[in-house]
Structure formats: C-alpha cells, structure tokens
Amino acid sequence: MEHFIKILSKPDNIPIAGMVLLVFFYTGWAFVMAIRNDLRIKAGKGPLELEESGLKVDVMPHLLKREFIAALVVTIILVIWSVAVNAPLEEIANPAVTPNPSKAPWYFLGLQEMLVYFDPWLAGVVFPTLIILGLMAIPYLDKNAKGNGYYTLQERPFAIFGFLFGFLILWVAMIFTGTFMRGPGWNFFSPFEPWDVHKVVPLTNVDLSELLDIDPKTPWYVREVPGFLFLLLWFTFIPYVVALVKRAFFAQLGIVRYWVTMFLFLFMLLLPVKMILRWTLNLKYLIVTPWFNI
Amino acid sequence: MPETIEQKPPKKKLVNWEELSRQIKASQFYKSMFRRDYKDTPRNRALAVIGNVWLHLHPVKVRKHGIRYSFTWGMGGISFYLFLVLLVSGVLLMFYYRPSIPEAYHDMKFLEFDVPFGMFLRNIHRWSGHAMVVTVWLHMLRVFMTGSYKPPREFNWGVGVVLLTFTLLLSFTGYLLPWDQLALWAVTVGTNMAKATPFLGAEGPFSIVDAASDVRFALLGGRIVGPNALLRFYVFHCIAFPLIFLVFLSVHLWRVRKDGGISGP
Amino acid sequence: MSRAFGWIGIVLFLVTLWGFWTEYNREWKGYQRGFRRLLAERTQKELQEARDRLSGPELEKARAALEQAVTIKKENQEDYDEGVKERKAARHIFFKEDRKRQFIKSRLDAALYRYEHEVKSGRAGEFEKGAVEELKRELSEQEERAAGLEKIKDQAEARVEHYDSPVDAAQADIGRLEADVRRLEKKLRQTQAQALVFPRGLEIKQFNLEELGRVDRCMTCHMGADQPGLEDAPPPFATHPQFKTLLASHPPEKFGCTSCHGGQGWATTREAAHGRVEFWHEPLLDGKFIETRCLQCHSGVTQLEGAPVVMKGRQLFEQYGCWGCHQIEGFKPLEEHRVGPKLVSLGSKTSQKWLEAWIRDPKTVRPKTRMPAFRFAEGEVEAISAYLASLRDDTIGPGYAAAEKELGHLSQYLAEGQELVGKLNCAGCHKVGAEGDVYAPELTLIGDKTRPEWIYQWLKDPKKLQPHTHMPDFRLTDREAFVITEYLASLKGQGVRAGLQGGVQQGGGEPQETLIARGKELIASKGCMACHEVEGIEQKLIIPPLTGLADKHIHELEFGYTRPEEVPRTVYDWVRHKINKPGVFDTERIFANMPTFNLDDSEVEALLTYLMTLTEHGLPESSRSPLTERERAIELGRQIVREHNCTACHKIEGVGSDVAPDLAGEGKKVRQDWLFHFLKEPRTLRPWLDARMPNFGFDDKEVTGLVAYFAALDGEPYPYESFETPAPTEEGLEAGKQLFEMFKCLACHVAGEVPEGVPTENLAPDLTQVKHRLKPEWVKAWLEDPQKIQPGTRMPTNWPYIMGRYYVPPPAKDILGGDVALQIQAVRDYLMVFEGVEEEPEPLPEPAVVPAEGEATQAEPVQEPVFETQ
User: Domains of chain C by range and CATH?
Assistant: First the structure.
C-alpha cells in the first residue's frame, strides 16, 4: 500500500490521478444527462436542450458571471496546488545514465504502452497519425443526424460506445497502466508491488508463423501468408459480414464512408486484439518481413 | 434557480452593501473610468458585451442551455483561461531561464531556491500545463457526447483536433526545458519514435534517409537530444507553437460564432 | 450566484495571502535572524566585560593623573589666565605681521615677473628693477619682524601648554581605556538594530564559483563560519573548525564550501542544502569521509596533514596489492612488480604440508601476514600445494653444504647466530619471537617452514632467489651466514610439524600428475597471479576495475541475501562489508572470487575512505594543487623510505629507530655524488661495529630519488650542487695541521686503518674520507659547534661558546692571529687534504679548478684538486 501511495504522491502523477477521477465523473455525468434525455424522448417530450433552446438569455450578466466564477475557482485550485506541491526536478540530465524505467510524458504513455505490442513505426507513427486523422474524420463519417446538440444514448449508440471505447479504454486506461503498473524494464507490477530493478519475468514470444509450425527457412512471402491472410480478412471479411447484418447502417453511410469507418474502427481494435493474442498465445508478430513487422 | 435578476429585499446588515456601492458609483473617480448611468436595460446589457474589446467575442444572447455547466461543463472556457495563465507565467519564467547546458538546470535551482516566487511560478506553469491537457480532453469528450461536431460544425471539430495536437506538443516541448533526467529521457523516448517513421525515418521500414537527415534529426537539430534540441524546443515552446496555436484558436472561436453559437437541437 | 461569487472572491483573497506568506517566510531568514540575535547577545556580553575591565587600576591611575593636572591648573589659575591673555595678544599680532609678510612677498613675486617680462621683451626694465630691490628689502625686514614675534608667540603658548597638556594627556589616556567600551556600545546599537523582529537586509549570501561550476549558498545560514571568535557559538553559527589552517589555505571565495563538504550548494533550505534528498548525488560528507575530497586536488602525495585516514587507506591499497587485481585509472604503485614473492623453487624451500596449511588459511600460520584467505572447494588446496611443491631449484644447496662441511654443527653457533641477529637489527623488519616489526615475514617459527639450505642461500644473496625482494644484502661472510642459519633453523614450535624431509607428498587418491596439472589451472583461475608471479602461468580471471566506485548507483550493487538491518542499502556499507567478508553477497548465481583479507576495523574504514575517493566527478584540473619540485622530491623520497622500511634502523624526519644514525640534516651534510655511490653500494663506515648498512640493490631511479629527497628536506639545490671551494695557503695548511694535532683529533677518529686495542665505543669516523664524503660548508659548521647539529654527540666543542661568542682556546691563541673563523677554516682545509698519518701531506700541485667567486684568489696557485669523485 505504501508503494501505491508513493507513486501517487509523485508530483507529476497528481494530474493523472485527477484526470482519471474527472474523466469518470464527467462521463458519468454525461450518461446521466443522456439517460435523462432518453427518458424524455421516450415520453415524447424531446430532449431538455430542445426546450431550452427556444429561450435565450442575456450573456451579460448570466454567462459572463458564470465564466468569471469558473475562472476564479480554477485560479483558487491552481494557487493552492502550486503552493502546496512542487514541480519535480531530478538530477541534471546525463546522457550516459538511463533511468529505469524511462517514461514518456504521461499523455504519451498510451503510445509507449503500445510499443509493447507493436513496433515503433506502428505504435509511434502510424497509430498516432491515424488517431489524429481519424478524429478529424469523425464528423464526415457520422451520418446520423440525431443527437446534434444534445445528450442522448439511444439515438447514437455506435458513436458513443465506439468513441468511449477508444478514449476511455484505449487511451485513458493505458495511461493509467503506464503510470501505475509499469515499472523497471517496463515489467508489469501491480500498483501495490514495490518496483524491483532486478525482477526477471519469463518473456519468450513467438511469431504467428512459428505458432503454425511453418519452417522458418521458407521464404518470407510464403511463410507470412497466414499473417497476411488474417489481416486481409480482418479488413475485408468482417466489414462485409457486418454490412450484411446491419444493412441500415451500411445504407446510411454509403460504401466509401462505411469502409473508412470500419477501417478506422477495426484498426483501433487491432490493439486490444494484439494484446489478447500476446497474453494468451505469447504472440509477437503476425507478419515478419525483411522490411517491417506487424 | 431564478432566471432573471430580482431585487432581493434589503436585510439588516453590518454594512449596507447597496448603499456603499451606490456611493462608490456616484464618485468622480468611478465615473471617470466606468460607464455611467448603468441602468440595467436590455440595450445596455447588449452594449456591455458588443461594445467591449475583450467581451465582444460573445453574442448578445445565448441559448439557455449554453450557460448550464451541466451542458457545457465550461471546459472550453477553462482551457482558454489556462492558456492565458500559461502565457503570463511563461513570459515571467523567461526572465530567469537560459536554454543552454548546464545553465538550464542551474536556473531551475535558482528559481527553486533564490528567486522570490520562483518556485510558485514554476509550479503554476507546470500544473496549468498538465491541467490544460486534461481540460482539453474533457472538452473534446463533451463536444462528442453532445454531438456538437455534426454539421455545420465539422470543420471546427477538425480545428479542435489540431488544437489538441498542439496542446500536446506544447506540453512536450516544455517538458524538456528543465534539462533534468526526467526531461531528457522522456523526450528521448518520445523522439525515438520518429526514428521509426516509414520512408523518412532512419530506422523505419523502407527508409530512404540516414540518421543525419531523417525526421528525427529535423526535430532535434541533431542525432542526440543535446544542446541543439534544447534550443530548438525552447523556440518551439515559446514562440512557434504558441503563435500557431493562437492562429488556430482564433479560427476555432470565430467558427463557434459563425456556426451558430452553442450547439443545440 | 452573487453570493457564491462573493465567497469565492474571499477564498481567493485568503489563498493569495497564504501564497505570499509561504513565499516570504523562508527558512533561511529564521537562521539569519537567529544569528543577528546571537551577535547582539554576544556584543552585550562583551560590553559588560569591557565595562567591568574599565574599573581597573589603569583607569584609576589615569583619573588620578587627570585630577592632579586639573588641580595644578586650578592652583595656578592666575598665571594660567594671564598666560592665556598673553597668548591671545601674541598670536594676534604675530598673525597680523605674518600676513603682511605674505602680502609683501606676493608683491615681490609680481614685480619680479614684470621685470623679467621687460627684459625678455628687450627693454632694460630699470623701473621694475628698482621696485624689485625695494620690495626685497621690505620683505627681509618684515620677515625678521615676524620671526621675532613668532618666538614671542611660542613662548606664550608654551606657558599655557604647561598646564593644558597634562590635562589633555590624561584625558586621552582615559579615552583610550574607554575606547573599547565606546566601540562596543556602538556595536551593540548596530547589532540590536539588526536583530529586530522584521529586520532589513536579510539576503541570501552566495559564492558564484564559475571555474568549479558551483554556486554555494551555505553561508546564508552558516553565517559565522568565516568569523573567528565564534568557536563556541551553537551550530549553524559556529566558526569553521581549524579556521587558521583549513580556511586560510582554502578561502571560500575561491573554493566555496561544497567542494570539500559535498551537499547541494544551490539550495537554501536545510534538508536540500545538506543534499540528503532524492535526486541529489552529492550528500554532505560525514566525519572522516570529508577527507575523500582532499585527494581530488592533492592527488600527487601519499602523506597529507589533515587527511590521515584516507592516506592510510591508500597505503593499504598499495601495500596489500589490491591493485594487482583491481585496476584504478591513474593509480600507479611505487614499484610495479607484484606485492607477493615469486612462486619459484618452493619445493626446495619448504614442504607441501606447510604449503597446504598456509594456503588454506594464512593467518593461522602467520597472524600478521598480508596474504588473504581464499575459499576453496574440496581438494583444491592439495592440488595447488602439489603443483608448488613440484617447483625445485637445484642451485640451492651447494653453498650450505660447503659451509656445513667446513664448520660442522657446534652448539655455540646458536648463541653466536642469535647475537648477530640482534646486532644486525633483523628485528627492524622481521618479528623474531616477541620483538620486531611486521614489515617483513615473521621468523618466529621459521625453522618449521624453511630448509636451512634455502635460508643460507637467501642470506648470502636474496636477490638471486627473489629479484624484487626488499631484503637487503648484508655482505655476510660464509661463517656469519652459517651461524645465523643455524640459529634460525632452530626456531621451531608446535605449529606445523612440517617434516621437511621429502618433497612432494603422495596425496590420497589422485595421481600426482593430475593433481599438479589441476593445481596449475587453479593458480591461473583463482587469482593467485595478482600478487605472485609464477613462471609459465598466465592469469585467467576477469576482475572489475574500481575506477568510479564511489559513483556507483545503489541499483548497480548486488546485496545478495543480506537484510537491510545487516547491511544498510548504501554504497558505503556495501563496500565496507565486501572488504570485510567478500563472500557476504554470494547467491546461487553469483560467487565472489575475492579472498578475505582479515583487516581490522580501523584498516577497513581507512580503505573504505580511500575507495570512496574514486569518482569521475572530480573538481576541474585548474583547481588541482600542483607540487613544486621540492615537494615532489620529498614525496617520492618518502614513498621510497616507506617502501624499503628505512626507519627500521634510521631516524628519518624524526621517526624511526636509533640503531643507525639519525639522518636529519643529511642533505646539508654529505655530498650528493658520494651519497649516490654509497646508496648504490653501501660501504661500512664504521668497520669496528658489527652493525652495517646492507646493500638494498637500488636501481638508479630509487637512488636519485633518495638523494633528491635528502637535498629537498634541507633545502639544498638539486641536482646541481655548488661548493665553496677551499683554496688554502701553505701557511693556512700549516696552521690547520697544528690545530689538528693540538686538538688531538686522532685520539678518537680513525685515520685509514682501525687501530688495535682501542675500545670500539670510543672510535669515531675515518677522517681520510672527509674530502670524499662531506660538504665543505658542513664541515665548518660541524667544527664550530657540533652540539648544534647533533645534540648529545661526543665530539668536543673545540672553540668554546661563552656569552654569545666563540672563543679561541688559550693554547691556540697565536695561531692565525687568534681568529676563530680563520682557525676553523684552516682545520677544515687541512681535513680536505688529509690522507692519513703515515704520509706527509703531499706537495700541493697545480689547481684544476677555478676558485669560486668571492674567494680571495691566492698568490700561490698551487693546489691539488681538493676533492675527487670516486
């Protein structure tokens, strides 16, 4: 327990703890608002915001007062925080001595965690790029006219759960993991386990081709066929099947939007899938070529 | 909660606040600085907003749910406020900081122990920075949950994503400046990913450049996180990225108005 | 909403106040206020003491004097008043007339100018000339008048002064005595003003040391450190200890504080400044560990006043041969051969049984040995011993056999041998029985270990058997060597019943060749080679260097199965326990090859302190303390003396034994060329004694090192000596011979051959060697006053020293006009040509050297060279 408190009380980890609490709080609040709206919609009243958007209030003083108060409260929090907790300063930078563990800034810990499962070009370049592009693409892919400007759950379940899955689980939870559960050597430690520099964990991993008992000596374009096949099916077969099942969804989006949406979504899901394959089968790579590995 | 301002019945108090405020407002001193005859009329309320250089970004009226914390969470505004705090504290810190080795680290010690309010300044800058990253994410979450990215606000959402990226980059470039072990190695880990860029990274798949001319070299000004990187990050952090951020921020705020203010059904 | 706003505003205001308060109320301000209060209190105390002192006898005297002077003045008040009046009038008129004089003079100067101007312009200037003459006359008149009036004025003033000056003097005395009090009163006012609750001028005090890359703010709290007089103040205000020696030679403006003490100089809070915080790797050093810093600048010496522990540690590191395994960058031992003997001919020296006992645990055989104990598996000791016992040398033996044949074995040899051992001072290096040093191996039970043939061979010529041994060659005759051997071989005990017959024992089980082969492998892999040279084997062991040991991070050290209570998790404790018991951190995967040295606690601490100096983060080169030539010579000399244990017989720099002469002043006394040859091949200077300086087999480097050392100790120039060149006249030499015979020098001093029948305690050194051995100036000083150079010597003082002068003894008062200096010089010159009594002094041939500057060049040029080099 002291170890958990020790990590928690490191000055730079306070915002992370705060973030986790706030994210959960606000997500909960959003859900409460959404469910309330959904109940109203079911009762035929329409969302609360609809009722309110007919009314307009003066910015001065109503909005301005609220903004000012928010600023004051934030200031109070900042001042107390800045007087009580000092920013960290470790030893002077020494390129010859690598701390163990060496962690990226906390907001990038999700990416650093991904490095366990993917090579740097994927985890550090391709995924972040797709995250940014994917986020920007959301408005152009979301053809659901409902839910524009008010909280609702039942009118846009796919959007909400897809986003929350990506945000809460694949981003925030990974940051939590990277902060509290990764120690020296990037070994896994429970939050209550003291960090031992000398911990040795058996970490032998196999590739897909090895799992399927293919002779390592076969040339790569033959040996990696199963891996390529897997990816191919992942990105073509699954969307096809889903399109057949959810015809309305497919029709709403059209082929291009549908496929881009599925591509992004499935790419995102590759991360948890790879993680599960690693934990269960000790799988390291699906595909191994002389130029890149996936 | 009452929606309009009501005159509360005056109570017996130690100090008669209303009388006091009336007397202040009648004084020459006050009258020379502030608007006079501030009668609380709709027109005056409107003028207070659109006639003020700082406030005229706001419309005169907003939809009712737009002032509700339970709708907006106030996160956009709080993010902006934190940005202002960062600007002011950042400029003040620039008086005491030299982006060279080993002066950078020693200046940190100087701020910590010697400069009056030095530690406070450094703290508020760092914590506001971390807080801003969190509030920006919460703002993004809120906008998504209320579907406020849907037409006509698609472009603004994209601008917001750019702002998010720059917030993270600002935090990242600032992370290096104390030049301690935490800073050096965090940035090393972060920039090592750039080495793996396909085509343009020295160790990425299908690399066409070597370590002296790849993306990472461009980022760091060298092959290591060293004096060049420190200076480069300093300039990014203090000048380049804030300016770019401000440009995008202006577009972002203007688009909010143009797209019809706070989104609603 | 407004109410919320109001409350939030108030909270923000309070929080801001809180922020301001924490910022203002810094820790160091409290210390500075405390210091100021301390100063005020002390000043108060000093003032009180000064006031007490004030009421002493001196003050009474001064006050009495004042009383008296005032009374006298009062009694002669009329005279005084009159005098004052007179004085006033005299002054008045004098000043008036004197002013007139000044006016006249200035008019004269102007007139002169006008005259000159006229003449220069080509005119005659008659008128001006007349004016000048007139004014000159006026001036001289006026001057006379003024002078007269001045005299009158002086007299009038003196009359008044007669009464006034005693009063003034007495008041000045009182003022002087009270000065202390007044000064302290002022100081008290100042210090009290500074010690107010909210004083002004509290500020951080720092030294910005750019060359060292440090900023030291320690004196912000440790305000009294550079003020002598606060030794008894409570910490942190006390004066720096050893203020005069340490602080004077290491002023904080140049060195700061943290260069010696460690800590975080940038910080201004106590915990952070003392550096005992996370992320600061230079914590404040405690106690003896401060000495580790001395070595960062004083890296060229092995002896340093004020740093005894760390220097002892360095010595131990060198003596115990740690460097044979563990390299340290920049560490060079004085002698580069290994610290242990070469393992050769052991089969001819001792028995396998003894070797096994020794190797298994050396300290049980010889408690003070430097050889450590290794950890052996089953059968390893037997294998190694078998291999070593198989090394034979057949040249050992014939010498002893021949002597044995000639002399036989008589019981008297034991006593003779023992006596000789005493006379030669073997105990100076070896422990024999209860007495002796541990510098060399203990001989108490040598009879159990070593064969007599080997002992004999060793005594006759140590370097033949061990080329690098420090054991010197005593130039023993065969008989001497034999009797000593007999004596030593008789020193047996219960210890290891060696049974020196038979060489290699038959071990049980394994055939001999396999055992020997296995022994050879083990020697290569167990680390024996770090200290011992063994022919034909090379070391196969990887050993970590110790460079940068003090920088090791705690994570880089393996603590094995020890618990934190047993071994605290610090680098210091890890090293300490490792030296004490190297196997303490062993685990299933890690086995330490390092043997156990069984050092006592103080040795372990000293060694630990030395090892903690091994850091890569030293102070920059520019702060190093460079050694002068002289210091370097002394340093090297000390190392050689330590290495060869010269103090076993000699006293050097006040330390050592009385068996051989005290070498203080040797640099001033003997000639360097003589000393060089002597050290290379010592000859017996006093052959009537059995004690003799043995031959150490120094190489040139060591000998020149020693010569330079002695020269440096006495401030003599090296290597270019210059002598005063004696240039005697024939008359001078005659006088010298006369004095020589008069003083009967040869009653004690030997002249060439040792005389028979004279008790040897009364003999003195050979005078025929003076010209070769001694410096001419020294001889003069010695003749003048031997007691000054060597107190207690039996050499008489020939020219008595009475009441500040040297006197010529009556029989010699006619020689050379009774001049002491000339006489001394004459005797010296005579000694410089003295060849012994048989021959007449040879006629003086042509001079071969030019007399030195300043020496009177003689009319008769005939001289033989007054000194020859051998």
Answer: 44-194 (1.10.287), 205-284 (no CATH), 346-530 (1.10.760.10), 722-870 (1.10.760)
- Judged by CB atoms closer than 8 Å, whether chains meet at C8 and A72 is answered as yes
| pLDDT per residue as tens digits for the range C815-832 | 888 888 888 888 888 888
Residue with tokens 């008048």: C145
Pairwise CB contact (< 8 Å): A76 & C22: no
What are the structure tokens assigned to A19, written together? Answer: 């973030």
> What was the pLDDT predicted at A79?
95
Residues 6+ apart with CB under 8 A from C661: C650
Residues C247-271 have a mean pLDDT of 89
Contact C279 A89 (CB under 8 A): yes
Q: Do A91 and C279 touch (CB under 8 A)?
A: yes
**E runs forming strands in C640-746:** 651-652, 655-656
Which pair of tokens denotes residue C170?
Answer: 């007495």
Cβ-based contacts of A103 with chain B (< 8 Å): 185-186, 189
Which of B43, B71, B150 to mutate to probe the A interface, most A CBs <10 Å? B150
| pLDDT of C391 higher than 60 | yes
What percent of chain C is predicted at pLDDT more than 90? 28
- Residues of chain A positioned with their CB less than 8 A from the CB of C11: 76
In 3D, which of B265, B127, B70 has the Cα closest to residue A26?
B70
CA A203 to chain centre: 25
What DSSP element (H or E) covers B61?
A: strand B61-63
Q: Which of A137, A157, A125 is nearest to A31 (CA)?
A: A157
Which residue is closest to B3 within chain C, CA to CA? Answer: C1
What is the per-residue pLDDT for C580? 92
**What is the rounded CA–CA span in Å between residue C597 and residue C582?**
9
How high is the pLDDT of residue B137?
A: 96
**Cβ of A219: how many Cβ atoms within 10 Å?**
7
By Cβ distance, the residue of B63, B105, B184 closest to A53 is B63
The pLDDT, as a whole number, for residue B7 is 60
Who contacts C199 (Cβ-Cβ below 8 Å, separation ≥6)?
C33, C36, C193
* Per-residue model confidence as pLDDT tens digits over B153-169: 999 999 999 999 999 99
Residue ranges of E strands in C371-420: none
Q: What average pLDDT is seen over chain C?
A: 85
Among all chains, which residue has been given the structure tokens 């400029």? B91
Which domains occur in chain B, in start order? Answer: 75-258 (1.20.810.10)
Looking only at the bridges linking them, the beta strands covering C431-432 and C435-436 are: antiparallel
Look at C8 and A73 and tell me if their CB atoms are within 8 Å: yes
Beta-strand relationship, B61-63 and C431-432: unpaired
Most confident of C207-211, C417-421, C603-607: C603-607
Q: Report d(CA A162, CA A258) in Å as an integer.
A: 14
Q: What residue has token string 């029985």?
A: C433
Using alpha carbons only, give the angle C109, C110, C111 rounded to the nearest 5 degrees: 90
Q: What tokens were used for B198?
A: 């396909």
Look at residue C626 and tell me whether its pLDDT is greater than 70. yes
- The predicted-structure confidence for C509-557, as pLDDT tens digits, reads as follows 567 888 888 999 899 888 888 889 888 888 778 888 999 898 888 888 8
> Which chain C residues touch A69 with a CB distance below 8 Å?
1, 4-5, 8
Q: What is the mean pLDDT of residues A89-102?
A: 90
Quote the tokens at residue C823. Answer: 């006489």
Higher pLDDT, A181 or C434: A181
**Residue C549 CB neighbour total at 10 angstroms:** 18
Q: Is the peptide bond before A61 cis (omega within 30 degrees of 0)?
A: yes
Residue B152 preceded by cis peptide, ω within 30: yes
Beta strands in C410-537 (DSSP E): 431-432, 435-436
- With CA atoms as reference, the chain B residue closest to A32 would be B70
Beta bridge partners, C749, equal C764
